[in-house]
Queue: 2 jobs
Job 1
Amino acid sequence: MDYDFKVRTSVERTKVEDLFEYEGRKIGRGTYGHVYKAKRKETFATSDINKLISADQKEYALKQIEGTGLSMSACREIALLRELKHPNVINLQRVFLSHTDRKVWLLFDYAEHDLWHIIKFHRAAKANKKAVYTPKAMVKSLLYQILDGIHYLHSNWILHRDLKPANILVMGEGIERGRVKIADMGFARLFNSPLKPLADLDPVVVTFWYRAPELLLGARHYTKAIDIWAIGCIFAELLTSEPIFHCRQEDIKTSNPYHHDQLDRIFNVMGFPHDKDWEDIKKMPEHPTLLKDFKRNNYQTCSLMKYMDRYKIKADTKAFHLLSKLLMMDPTKRFTSEAAMADPYFQEDPLPTSDVFAGCPIPYPKREFLSDEEQDDKSDSSKQQQQQQQQQQQHASQSGSSNHSHGHHPQHPVQQNNMQGGMHPNYSNHPGHPQQQSHPQQNNSFNQRF
Amino acid sequence: MAGNFWQSSHCQQWLLDPSDLVRERQVDFAVVTEEDYQKLFIFFSNFIQVLGEHLKLKQQVIATATVYFKRFYARNSLKCIDPLLLAPTCILLASKVEEFGVISNNRLITTCQSVVKSKFSYAYPQEFPYRANHILECEFYLLENMDCCLVVYQPYRPLVQFVQDIGQEDLLGLSWKIVNDSLRTDISLLYPPYQIALAAMQMACVVLQKDGKNWFAEIAVDTDKIQEITRQILALYDLYKTYDEKKEIQGLLAKMPKPKSQPSRPPSSAQSQDGIQGTNDQSMGVNN
């Protein structure tokens, strides 16, 4: 490589740290890397040092990709985001390549909210018996925009592969107020072993809650239907403020897609699928294991209707009808994004709005900065072990009183580590065991606020 | 991604004007002739093709790597990065983008070494000189110079559709090969992939004496562009008639503008720097 070429390009290259202020402004971290809330630095025009160019006050999300160099997932992310343009898909503004430390930085518009924080806020309010005032159509507007964004991705043959509340961003005050932005496409991450095992990167938990049953039964390929299942899960969670397929998250280091507890949870809500409902279930790689591990009789009283009824979502509502189409066990019978967007639910009053907050005040707090010490604490391994021991003890006593068959797994330590916040899909303040959780005492969910 | 070509970075940023190419290449044309330049690019396109085949990559990935290679030199002189280094870098980046599994650094370097030795020793009698760290460094420059535009649309997909549409499936083999050959020209920098596919198919019709006149008459396409593409591919075949790469390439590579790993400065000071480096190495050896 030519020396003069290197010198010339290094002079011409704008460095992220010269252009943006982001020190001490970290708002998230996970397998993908670190995200900062950044703003432009005040810069002097080179021609006239006295003329201060006032920095634009706009906020940006600056993501430093985990690891160094160009991993396949970084490549896919840059390649695809460079081409994508849709109001409900996160917009890549710029890429910074830092040649000296081989770090890759991506610059996005800043989104103040995300569904993980929004749902968490509602759950906390519910626990404290406080009302949260939100527009009647908010859930509908959120769902419609999620579907719109996914429809765009799907019509470009891009699968998200990792849809969950934390990846659904919502813009705060500004010209795009209340607009959904789908972020953090799974790209290649789930296919290829990342540089570090996913479990090593605390405090992120790889969640199975949004995984479609066919994936849990060993389906080898991601499909559009898998994204739709996840949207169904998110819709249910917006309606009830509880993750519909909540399941303890141990065993996350396993590479085996088969996940007994997660399937058990799905059947506990949905009932065990009849052969006529899902004919191809017999062809699933893990079907023999399924027959060995599960008895249909144990789930005879379970149905989505019953589950949602506990949250006062009646079976004759359009919301329930659409939900049941999104959460079809048989992937071939699941709605497409197109069919879902044409559903009568969206034509019924109250109609969805492009600002999901419909001009009302936004009740949710702004993102907080994560302090670095906090993180150092978290990654302290001895502390982690301590917590793990505590949790195991806790868990042992819990499973003693529980009639669940799967109480013998040690709980993963990561769950507790998450408590200090961060934008991770983890419900550490969750009211205990899924069984207890499935009997909600009160129903301050979004759609019944008014 | 099989998205919308018309809204792609390929369509909006990377369909260049022939005059752009000529302008950007003036620096190199001062050192080698236009024809020599073309011959060098034929050579390196072949190198990328053979390297890709040895790594068992699909033609789609190889074609993308070749377009990356051309995009870089459409904006930079051959002097900036040794094409022998950029070629495997393009292969590495294209394989990641097209998601055909990561090629390990080790495998890439070993394949480069063995391919240079077994297939291209007539051009490079010495060993392949680069290591993984060179390729990784180069990858950042490649990405940067392409303005992060990584999704490239290739003529293969439209070609398959057109051949099905015209209902003469036996055209596919030959037209596919013509598309492959077009990678040895500037065509992929100048024309949208569907036009390249149409030109290749029309050429195949002529060679195989198939009648496609009605089909071509019915599609609304700029026939001038198709003719331009055809002319450039035919010019390539003409060149092949008289050109003996095995004889000429060493001379061409010797003439080619080359990177200097040292800053341009008077020879004496360059020497003294070498001297300092030498002692540094020695002292490190002692410390270890």
Note: DSSP finds 16 helices and eleven strands in chain A.
Job 2
Amino acid sequence: MASLSLKNIYKIYSNGFNAVKDFNLEVEDKEFIIFVGPSGCGKSTTLRMIAGLEDISKGELWIGDKLVNDVEPKDRDIAMVFQNYALYPHMTVYDNMAFGLKIKKVPKDKIDKQIHEAAKILDIEHLLDRKPKALSGGQRQRVAMGRAIVREPKVFLMDEPLSNLDAKLRVQMRIEISKLHQRLQTTIIYVTHDQTEAMTLGTRIVVLKDGIIQQVDTPQNLYDKPQNLFVAGFIGSPAMNFIECKAVKSGSDILLMFGSHSIKVPEGKAIKLIEGNYIDRDIILGIRPEDIHDEQLFIESSPESVIDAKINVYEMLGAEVYLYFNIDQFDITARVNSRTTARPGDTVQLAFDLSKIHLFDKETERIIVN
Amino acid sequence: MISNQILQDTIDGIKAISRVDLCVMDMEGKPLASTMLEVSEYDKVVLAFVDSPAESQVLQGCQFFKVYDDNQLEYVILAKGENDDVYMIGKLATFQIQNLLVAYKERFDKDNFIKNLLLDNLLLVDIYNRAKKLHIDTDVRRVVYIIETKAEKDNNVLETVRSLFSSKTKDFITAVDEKNIILVKEVKQTETYEDMEKTAKVIVDMLNSEAMTQVRVAYGTIVNEIKEVSRSYKEAKMALDVGKIFYEDRNIIAHGNLGIGRLIYQLPIPLCKMFIKEIFDSRTPDEFDEETLTTINKFFENSLNVSETSRQLYIHRNTLVYRLDKLQKTTNLDLRVFEDAITFKIALMVVKYMKYMKSLEY
């Protein structure tokens, strides 16, 4: 088990392409860290630099108290699980798990002990004599995990290990990985582009874009307190709604004006707008779909945030309904209760939960107030 | 492996020269070739000799010798007589048969055949004859992968690749140099280049996680006949080179997907030099500072879009315009103009190619 420290890490290719820029991160022992971001954001490159499979252009990488920039991957005490795992087709599960240790010349009795321990953790003891073709997709994935576990590494690195599985199996394996982390009590760094995986698995999430860290935080904080427009839009499904508006002063109130609509900013958030000199300037209002309400009771209790909306699309998901509509040129989604009576073509009243709105600087895209 | 007739011819020849009777037996004491009329009396003695650690022994008026194939006992040779001359002839016969084994093995060795096939060391007629003898299909679809490891002589990599594909008897794994492993893979009729890419990804991921080493995988085009396998190999080799020069960030390179790098790679160096002199005169792109190079690359990345580039570089639009103007003064190329931009981009790639070729000279 070990902590990890990435200090001012850069990855610059010889064509000048800067894949990772000034990456700073402290990973505590036993943490489950997720790197998430759109494709090409540098998450896999960073993971590969930690593994030693890519050279670090600038910066320092520490595993425990050892600087490992120039240490060979096999000597870094890490184990990796990748997306395109394969099992040796002619070997049994036992031999598949033993292979890596055999080529490292680990004594037979130690190999045997480690395989049985790993098999127990993964609940695949009964499969040890089987060949890969006799295994299901989930079982094969577990064997691939087992190959990493038997190495008894200080750190596990996983690069989208579930993306080749079908949706149902992916959910199942996600739970398995979560359990595995609890059982192994080890440091895991996990790369994914799937935000559900990120939110459900990680103790902390690193959101990346264009090789730059956007925010490092717990899943809850990322959702509730995004630090910029990108994080706000990337985390959450359906994504947060954004409306360009102007902050104006009306008497003692601060209003957000967009098109023919105006809503009153709650006092606590209004102070931040005044302090930041945002009055009479364009800002961006962000609101999550579930913070737009159609219940009569809510509408009556917050008349200052009510808007009229013509529903374009109605999507029934069983427990909830997504309503799609436009406010001026902005596409908006509301997530409401399935008992809603709104249907496409209807003009309905909807109210924003003003305590949950997020306001962003239009130029810097940084958060003003959450 | 060697036919009994060949063994018989060999010992007959030796007897004709030395007048010493010889016999070749297998490990169970069964005679395979002999110049003596009766050898059944030695059956049991041979079995005892096989079990003994001795390399040679004198028993019942005969000298016994062991012949090994890759440390595995293959034959026992009997030379009639007890004196030193017979010992010497027996030893010579042993040496001769041992070498025959090696020669025959080499001749029929699949690995050797594949190596020679890849390196174009075989005549067309030999390819088909030997493939037939080795039971290798001549008209199936195949593709060649080259797996380049960071470290030389990385046995873990070879071991991992062998284990991954060895159950498929129709795939061949070999190595022609210290850094590269070659996989000649049979391709099913239904398989496409997407499947080739998937296989390459599996190889990379497996070697990264199991052998824990950096690898680069290149593959050629699918060929339909065994005689074309060397073409697929050459294509894979070229893809590996082109990838190293122009696509450093990729660890899988397909010959079918080399882009403009394919053209530049074929250019003769004197022509490249002329072109670079024309574009940059006495300067080289190395002389541009890091800021200029980053600006150029970002500008290309964003399809010559000034606003987007300045946004991504966190600089004012006018700063970017100033930098581009400055570059125009030194190179006479305005990167905002498509034709100039493409000339500049190609020139940068040509410089990279020239540098790579120069590095090979040392």
Note: Chain A has a mean pLDDT of 91.
